[in-house]
DNA sequence: GCGCTGACTCAAGTAATCCGGAGCCAGCAA
DNA sequence: TTGCTGGCTCCGGATTACTTGAGTCAGCGC
Protein backbone atom coordinates (compact mmCIF):
# COMPACT_ATOMS: atom_id res chain seq x y z
CA UNK A 1 0.00 0.00 0.00
CA UNK A 2 1.21 3.48 -0.83
CA UNK A 3 2.52 5.42 2.15
CA UNK A 4 0.73 8.68 1.53
CA UNK A 5 2.87 10.64 3.94
CA UNK A 6 6.21 9.53 2.53
CA UNK A 7 5.17 9.52 -1.11
CA UNK A 8 3.16 12.71 -0.95
CA UNK A 9 4.36 13.69 -4.40
CA UNK A 10 3.14 10.43 -5.90
CA UNK A 11 -0.54 11.32 -5.67
CA UNK A 12 -2.66 14.35 -6.29
CA UNK A 13 -5.35 16.10 -4.28
CA UNK A 14 -7.35 17.21 -7.31
CA UNK A 15 -10.39 15.38 -6.03
CA UNK A 16 -9.76 16.02 -2.34
CA UNK A 17 -12.88 16.25 -0.22
CA UNK A 18 -11.49 19.22 1.67
CA UNK A 19 -11.06 21.11 -1.58
CA UNK A 20 -14.55 20.16 -2.71
CA UNK A 21 -16.04 21.29 0.58
CA UNK A 22 -14.24 24.61 0.31
CA UNK A 23 -15.69 25.15 -3.13
CA UNK A 24 -19.06 25.45 -1.39
CA UNK A 25 -18.14 27.15 1.90
CA UNK A 26 -14.66 28.44 1.18
CA UNK A 27 -15.33 32.02 2.20
CA UNK A 28 -15.47 33.53 5.61
CA UNK A 29 -18.97 34.87 5.02
CA UNK A 30 -20.33 31.48 3.92
CA UNK A 31 -19.10 29.87 7.13
CA UNK A 32 -20.62 32.66 9.20
CA UNK A 33 -23.94 32.25 7.39
CA UNK A 34 -23.85 28.57 8.32
CA UNK A 35 -23.05 29.42 11.93
CA UNK A 36 -26.01 31.79 12.01
CA UNK A 37 -28.28 29.16 10.51
CA UNK A 38 -27.36 26.84 13.37
CA UNK A 39 -28.07 29.65 15.83
CA UNK A 40 -31.62 29.77 14.54
CA UNK A 41 -31.45 32.58 12.01
CA UNK A 42 -33.59 32.03 8.95
CA UNK A 43 -34.46 35.40 7.43
CA UNK A 44 -32.54 37.55 5.04
CA UNK A 45 -32.22 40.69 7.06
CA UNK A 46 -31.42 38.82 10.27
CA UNK A 47 -28.45 37.15 8.61
CA UNK A 48 -27.10 40.50 7.48
CA UNK A 49 -27.56 42.26 10.79
CA UNK A 50 -26.37 39.47 13.05
CA UNK A 51 -23.30 38.57 11.02
CA UNK A 52 -22.49 42.20 10.38
CA UNK A 53 -22.00 42.00 6.61
CA UNK A 54 -23.78 43.81 3.80
CA UNK A 55 -26.97 42.62 2.22
CA UNK A 56 -25.48 41.97 -1.23
CA UNK A 57 -22.96 39.61 0.36
CA UNK A 58 -25.71 37.83 2.26
CA UNK A 59 -27.79 37.51 -0.89
CA UNK A 60 -24.87 35.95 -2.73
CA UNK A 61 -24.04 33.47 0.03
CA UNK A 62 -27.68 32.44 0.54
CA UNK A 63 -28.05 31.89 -3.17
CA UNK A 64 -24.89 29.78 -3.34
CA UNK A 65 -25.68 27.73 -0.25
CA UNK A 66 -29.23 27.15 -1.49
CA UNK A 67 -27.96 26.11 -4.91
CA UNK A 68 -25.48 23.77 -3.22
CA UNK A 69 -28.29 22.19 -1.21
CA UNK A 70 -27.26 23.20 2.31
CA UNK A 71 -30.20 25.56 2.69
CA UNK A 72 -33.68 25.55 1.23
CA UNK A 73 -36.17 28.35 0.78
CA UNK A 74 -39.58 27.82 2.29
CA UNK A 75 -42.41 30.33 2.27
CA UNK A 76 -43.75 31.82 5.47
CA UNK A 77 -46.41 34.36 6.21
CA UNK A 78 -46.83 36.58 9.22
CA UNK A 79 -50.30 37.98 9.94
CA UNK A 80 -50.81 41.21 8.06
CA UNK A 81 -47.63 40.70 6.06
CA UNK A 82 -46.98 39.40 2.60
CA UNK A 83 -45.62 35.92 1.98
CA UNK A 84 -41.87 35.68 2.25
CA UNK A 85 -39.22 32.98 2.04
CA UNK A 86 -37.04 31.86 4.84
CA UNK A 87 -33.86 29.79 4.66
CA UNK A 88 -33.75 26.52 6.56
CA UNK A 89 -31.07 23.89 6.90
CA UNK A 90 -31.46 20.77 4.81
CA UNK A 91 -30.07 17.44 6.05
CA UNK A 92 -26.98 18.22 3.97
CA UNK A 93 -26.70 21.53 5.76
CA UNK A 94 -27.41 20.07 9.20
CA UNK A 95 -24.59 17.61 8.71
CA UNK A 96 -22.26 20.57 8.39
CA UNK A 97 -22.69 21.21 12.09
CA UNK A 98 -19.64 19.19 13.00
CA UNK A 99 -17.49 21.59 10.99
CA UNK A 100 -18.93 24.63 12.75
CA UNK A 101 -18.56 22.88 16.09
CA UNK A 102 -14.94 21.98 15.36
CA UNK A 103 -14.19 25.59 14.40
CA UNK A 104 -15.85 26.85 17.55
CA UNK A 105 -14.06 24.38 19.78
CA UNK A 106 -10.69 25.25 18.35
CA UNK A 107 -11.41 28.91 18.95
CA UNK A 108 -12.62 28.19 22.48
CA UNK A 109 -9.34 26.46 23.22
CA UNK A 110 -6.86 28.68 21.43
CA UNK A 111 -8.40 32.03 20.59
CA UNK A 112 -10.61 33.33 23.36
CA UNK A 113 -9.93 36.36 25.48
CA UNK A 114 -10.16 36.28 29.27
CA UNK A 115 -13.95 36.48 29.30
CA UNK A 116 -14.39 33.26 27.35
CA UNK A 117 -16.70 32.31 24.50
CA UNK A 118 -20.26 33.66 24.21
CA UNK A 119 -21.93 30.36 23.45
CA UNK A 120 -21.39 26.65 23.67
CA UNK A 121 -23.31 23.58 22.55
CA UNK A 122 -25.37 21.48 24.92
CA UNK A 123 -26.87 18.05 24.48
CA UNK A 124 -30.60 18.65 24.27
CA UNK A 125 -32.13 16.60 27.01
CA UNK A 126 -29.27 15.99 29.39
CA UNK A 127 -27.93 19.51 29.01
CA UNK A 128 -24.26 18.54 29.18
CA UNK A 129 -21.81 20.33 26.95
CA UNK A 130 -21.11 18.81 23.54
CA UNK A 131 -17.72 18.52 21.95
CA UNK A 132 -16.22 16.71 19.00
CA UNK A 133 -14.08 13.64 19.42
CA UNK A 134 -12.43 11.34 16.94
CA UNK A 135 -13.24 7.68 16.95
CA UNK A 136 -12.10 4.81 14.77
CA UNK A 137 -14.28 2.13 13.24
CA UNK A 138 -13.06 -0.29 15.91
CA UNK A 139 -14.60 1.96 18.53
CA UNK A 140 -11.38 3.36 19.96
CA UNK A 141 -11.17 6.97 21.01
CA UNK A 142 -8.50 8.58 18.84
CA UNK A 143 -6.32 11.44 20.00
CA UNK A 144 -4.85 14.14 17.81
CA UNK A 145 -1.58 12.76 16.47
CA UNK A 146 -2.76 9.17 16.44
CA UNK A 147 -4.02 9.34 12.87
CA UNK A 148 -2.39 8.72 9.56
CA UNK A 149 -3.72 9.27 6.04
CA UNK A 150 -4.50 6.15 4.00
CA UNK A 151 -5.51 5.80 0.35
CA UNK A 152 -9.18 6.12 -0.51
CA UNK A 153 -11.00 4.72 -3.54
CA UNK A 154 -10.43 7.87 -5.56
CA UNK A 155 -6.67 8.00 -5.12
CA UNK A 156 -5.02 9.20 -8.31
CA UNK A 157 -1.36 8.39 -8.77
CA UNK A 158 0.66 10.78 -10.86
CA UNK A 159 2.45 9.87 -14.03
CA UNK B 1 -31.26 31.28 31.51
CA UNK B 2 -31.39 33.09 28.20
CA UNK B 3 -32.73 31.02 25.33
CA UNK B 4 -30.12 31.82 22.73
CA UNK B 5 -32.15 30.46 19.86
CA UNK B 6 -35.32 32.41 20.62
CA UNK B 7 -33.64 35.61 21.74
CA UNK B 8 -30.96 35.59 19.10
CA UNK B 9 -31.18 39.37 18.81
CA UNK B 10 -30.52 39.81 22.52
CA UNK B 11 -26.86 38.87 22.34
CA UNK B 12 -23.96 39.54 20.04
CA UNK B 13 -21.38 37.32 18.39
CA UNK B 14 -18.61 39.90 18.50
CA UNK B 15 -16.42 37.56 20.50
CA UNK B 16 -17.60 34.36 18.83
CA UNK B 17 -14.99 31.61 18.70
CA UNK B 18 -15.94 30.77 15.14
CA UNK B 19 -15.22 34.35 14.09
CA UNK B 20 -11.93 34.33 15.95
CA UNK B 21 -10.90 31.08 14.34
CA UNK B 22 -11.72 32.45 10.92
CA UNK B 23 -9.52 35.46 11.57
CA UNK B 24 -6.62 33.01 11.50
CA UNK B 25 -7.70 30.48 8.89
CA UNK B 26 -10.54 32.31 7.16
CA UNK B 27 -9.20 31.88 3.65
CA UNK B 28 -9.36 28.93 1.38
CA UNK B 29 -5.59 28.87 0.97
CA UNK B 30 -4.95 28.90 4.73
CA UNK B 31 -7.13 25.84 5.19
CA UNK B 32 -5.41 24.07 2.32
CA UNK B 33 -2.01 24.86 3.83
CA UNK B 34 -3.19 23.27 7.06
CA UNK B 35 -4.46 20.22 5.17
CA UNK B 36 -1.08 19.88 3.50
CA UNK B 37 0.72 20.19 6.81
CA UNK B 38 -1.31 17.23 8.10
CA UNK B 39 -0.41 15.31 4.94
CA UNK B 40 3.24 15.66 5.86
CA UNK B 41 4.27 18.67 3.82
CA UNK B 42 6.75 20.93 5.57
CA UNK B 43 8.74 22.83 2.94
CA UNK B 44 7.93 26.01 1.13
CA UNK B 45 8.03 24.83 -2.42
CA UNK B 46 6.16 21.60 -1.64
CA UNK B 47 3.25 23.58 -0.24
CA UNK B 48 3.03 25.68 -3.36
CA UNK B 49 3.28 22.79 -5.79
CA UNK B 50 0.99 20.36 -3.97
CA UNK B 51 -1.74 22.87 -3.20
CA UNK B 52 -1.47 24.45 -6.62
CA UNK B 53 -1.26 28.08 -5.57
CA UNK B 54 1.42 30.67 -6.21
CA UNK B 55 4.45 31.12 -4.05
CA UNK B 56 3.59 34.61 -2.80
CA UNK B 57 0.28 33.28 -1.51
CA UNK B 58 2.07 30.40 0.22
CA UNK B 59 4.59 32.80 1.76
CA UNK B 60 1.77 34.98 3.13
CA UNK B 61 -0.15 32.02 4.60
CA UNK B 62 2.94 30.44 6.15
CA UNK B 63 3.89 33.76 7.70
CA UNK B 64 0.39 34.28 9.12
CA UNK B 65 0.02 30.74 10.40
CA UNK B 66 3.46 30.90 11.98
CA UNK B 67 2.68 34.24 13.61
CA UNK B 68 -0.58 32.79 14.89
CA UNK B 69 1.28 29.88 16.42
CA UNK B 70 -0.13 27.00 14.36
CA UNK B 71 3.17 26.38 12.61
CA UNK B 72 6.75 26.88 13.67
CA UNK B 73 9.90 27.24 11.64
CA UNK B 74 12.69 24.85 12.44
CA UNK B 75 16.01 24.62 10.64
CA UNK B 76 16.97 21.54 8.68
CA UNK B 77 19.98 20.64 6.64
CA UNK B 78 20.31 18.15 3.83
CA UNK B 79 23.81 16.84 3.00
CA UNK B 80 25.50 19.15 0.53
CA UNK B 81 22.79 21.76 0.91
CA UNK B 82 22.58 24.94 2.89
CA UNK B 83 20.54 25.18 6.06
CA UNK B 84 16.84 25.84 5.47
CA UNK B 85 13.73 26.22 7.55
CA UNK B 86 10.79 23.89 7.47
CA UNK B 87 7.33 24.45 8.83
CA UNK B 88 6.01 22.02 11.42
CA UNK B 89 2.74 21.83 13.27
CA UNK B 90 2.75 23.08 16.84
CA UNK B 91 0.35 21.58 19.41
CA UNK B 92 -1.97 24.48 18.60
CA UNK B 93 -1.76 23.54 14.94
CA UNK B 94 -2.13 19.80 15.58
CA UNK B 95 -5.32 20.49 17.47
CA UNK B 96 -6.72 21.97 14.29
CA UNK B 97 -6.89 18.49 12.82
CA UNK B 98 -10.46 17.99 13.90
CA UNK B 99 -11.50 20.92 11.71
CA UNK B 100 -9.72 19.50 8.67
CA UNK B 101 -11.16 16.07 9.41
CA UNK B 102 -14.68 17.50 9.73
CA UNK B 103 -14.29 19.32 6.41
CA UNK B 104 -13.02 16.17 4.74
CA UNK B 105 -15.78 14.01 6.17
CA UNK B 106 -18.49 16.40 5.04
CA UNK B 107 -16.99 16.38 1.57
CA UNK B 108 -16.73 12.59 1.60
CA UNK B 109 -20.43 12.36 2.40
CA UNK B 110 -21.86 15.15 0.25
CA UNK B 111 -19.40 16.22 -2.39
CA UNK B 112 -17.54 13.28 -3.89
CA UNK B 113 -17.82 12.05 -7.44
CA UNK B 114 -18.36 8.41 -8.28
CA UNK B 115 -14.72 7.47 -7.75
CA UNK B 116 -14.72 8.55 -4.11
CA UNK B 117 -12.21 10.46 -2.02
CA UNK B 118 -8.45 10.13 -2.52
CA UNK B 119 -7.54 9.77 1.13
CA UNK B 120 -9.03 8.93 4.48
CA UNK B 121 -7.74 8.90 8.04
CA UNK B 122 -6.78 5.73 9.83
CA UNK B 123 -6.12 5.07 13.50
CA UNK B 124 -2.40 4.46 13.69
CA UNK B 125 -2.00 1.07 15.25
CA UNK B 126 -5.33 -0.59 14.65
CA UNK B 127 -5.65 0.84 11.15
CA UNK B 128 -9.40 1.38 11.31
CA UNK B 129 -10.86 4.46 9.71
CA UNK B 130 -11.20 7.55 11.88
CA UNK B 131 -14.19 9.86 11.89
CA UNK B 132 -15.47 12.68 14.07
CA UNK B 133 -18.36 12.18 16.43
CA UNK B 134 -20.01 14.47 18.92
CA UNK B 135 -20.15 13.53 22.54
CA UNK B 136 -21.52 15.30 25.59
CA UNK B 137 -19.82 15.65 28.95
CA UNK B 138 -22.10 12.94 30.32
CA UNK B 139 -20.60 10.52 27.83
CA UNK B 140 -23.59 10.25 25.50
CA UNK B 141 -23.08 10.07 21.78
CA UNK B 142 -24.79 13.10 20.29
CA UNK B 143 -26.36 13.13 16.85
CA UNK B 144 -26.66 16.10 14.53
CA UNK B 145 -29.83 17.92 15.55
CA UNK B 146 -29.62 16.91 19.19
CA UNK B 147 -27.69 20.02 20.19
CA UNK B 148 -28.74 23.45 21.30
CA UNK B 149 -26.65 26.56 21.93
CA UNK B 150 -26.29 27.67 25.55
CA UNK B 151 -24.69 30.80 27.00
CA UNK B 152 -20.97 30.75 27.64
CA UNK B 153 -18.98 32.87 30.09
CA UNK B 154 -18.34 35.58 27.51
CA UNK B 155 -21.96 36.13 26.53
CA UNK B 156 -22.60 39.81 25.88
CA UNK B 157 -26.19 40.99 26.04
CA UNK B 158 -27.12 43.96 23.94
CA UNK B 159 -28.46 47.19 25.27
C1' DG C 1 36.66 34.07 -5.23
C1' DC C 2 32.62 32.34 -8.82
C1' DG C 3 28.71 30.09 -10.23
C1' DC C 4 24.73 27.56 -9.07
C1' DT C 5 20.55 26.22 -6.65
C1' DG C 6 16.58 26.86 -4.30
C1' DA C 7 13.94 29.43 -0.84
C1' DC C 8 11.71 33.28 -0.66
C1' DT C 9 10.23 38.26 -2.03
C1' DC C 10 8.82 42.22 -4.75
C1' DA C 11 5.89 44.28 -8.29
C1' DA C 12 2.09 44.67 -11.18
C1' DG C 13 -2.08 43.11 -12.83
C1' DT C 14 -6.47 40.46 -12.36
C1' DA C 15 -10.20 38.43 -9.98
C1' DA C 16 -13.04 37.82 -6.11
C1' DT C 17 -15.15 39.82 -2.22
C1' DC C 18 -17.27 43.27 0.30
C1' DC C 19 -19.40 47.81 1.47
C1' DG C 20 -22.59 51.73 1.07
C1' DG C 21 -26.22 53.63 -1.13
C1' DA C 22 -29.81 53.79 -4.23
C1' DG C 23 -33.48 51.48 -6.23
C1' DC C 24 -36.87 47.88 -7.54
C1' DC C 25 -40.89 45.34 -6.60
C1' DA C 26 -44.58 42.52 -4.32
C1' DG C 27 -48.38 42.87 -1.87
C1' DC C 28 -50.81 44.45 2.43
C1' DA C 29 -53.37 48.49 4.37
C1' DA C 30 -56.35 51.99 3.75
C1' DT D 1 -55.49 53.28 -6.35
C1' DT D 2 -52.16 54.99 -3.54
C1' DG D 3 -48.86 54.69 -0.05
C1' DC D 4 -45.90 52.05 2.60
C1' DT D 5 -42.93 48.37 4.16
C1' DG D 6 -39.49 45.14 3.81
C1' DG D 7 -37.03 41.68 1.16
C1' DC D 8 -33.93 41.71 -2.13
C1' DT D 9 -30.99 43.58 -6.13
C1' DC D 10 -28.01 46.67 -8.81
C1' DC D 11 -24.18 49.73 -9.16
C1' DG D 12 -19.61 51.89 -8.25
C1' DG D 13 -15.77 51.89 -5.68
C1' DA D 14 -12.54 50.00 -2.06
C1' DT D 15 -10.24 46.25 -0.22
C1' DT D 16 -8.44 41.75 -0.17
C1' DA D 17 -6.75 37.44 -2.36
C1' DC D 18 -4.30 35.46 -5.79
C1' DT D 19 -1.30 34.94 -10.15
C1' DT D 20 2.58 35.56 -13.05
C1' DG D 21 7.11 36.79 -13.71
C1' DA D 22 11.18 38.75 -12.40
C1' DG D 23 14.45 39.40 -8.86
C1' DT D 24 17.10 38.83 -4.37
C1' DC D 25 19.94 36.41 -1.43
C1' DA D 26 22.29 32.81 1.35
C1' DG D 27 25.53 29.54 1.26
C1' DC D 28 27.41 25.11 -0.73
C1' DG D 29 30.60 23.17 -4.33
C1' DC D 30 34.30 24.20 -6.85
TrEMBL record, chains A, B:
It comes from the Bacteria. GO terms for molecular function: DNA binding. SUPFAM superfamilies: Winged helix' DNA-binding domain (SSF46785). InterPro entries: HTH_HxlR, WH-like_DNA-bd_sf, WH_DNA-bd_sf. Residues 16-115 form the HTH hxlR-type domain. Pfam families: HxlR. Gene3D superfamilies: Winged helix-like DNA-binding domain superfamily/Winged helix DNA-binding domain. Keywords: DNA-binding, Transcription, Transcription regulation. The keyword Transcription regulation applies. Coiled coil: none annotated. This is Transcriptional regulator, HxlR family.
Amino acid sequence: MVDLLKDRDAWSTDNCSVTRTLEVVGTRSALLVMREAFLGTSRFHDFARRIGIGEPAVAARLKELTAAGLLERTPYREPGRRTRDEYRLTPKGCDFYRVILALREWGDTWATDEQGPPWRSAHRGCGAEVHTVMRCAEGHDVQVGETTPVPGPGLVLRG
